Amino acid sequence: MQQPKESFFINRLKGAGYALKGALILIKTEASIQVQFSIGLLLIIAGFYFEISTTEWILQIFAIGMVMSIEGLNTAVEEIADFIHPDFHHKIGLIKDIAAGAVFFAAAAASIIGLLIYIPKIF
Fold this sequence. Notes:
By secondary structure, the chain is an all-alpha fold. The chain has a single domain (32-122), classed as Helix Hairpins, CATH 1.10.287. The chain contains four helices and no strands. α2 (31-49) runs antiparallel to α3. InterPro entries: DAGK, DAGK_sf, UDPK. This is Diacylglycerol kinase.
């Protein structure tokens, strides 16, 4: 006898649960995510302190989300690479370097956004 399919809504709730679980795992276990999360919290506090505009909030939240998301993907790539080939291999090293490079691009863009928002408010 075939089990009835769960509803679309139930599947979406389960998916959101898995995503939240993954986010919590990243925050609890990954130093790089912990640093990015802390910087994000500081920027949110700074946003309230300096009363940034709605547009600045949008840019700041987007930048924080972008960096943390790509950092999470970088962590996933590293975990997959280590699972597939636990010993050192130059190709695995190259894959990890490329994933880290993506984080660098996101962090650089986010830093520029932060500087554009806060330098005029500080000086």
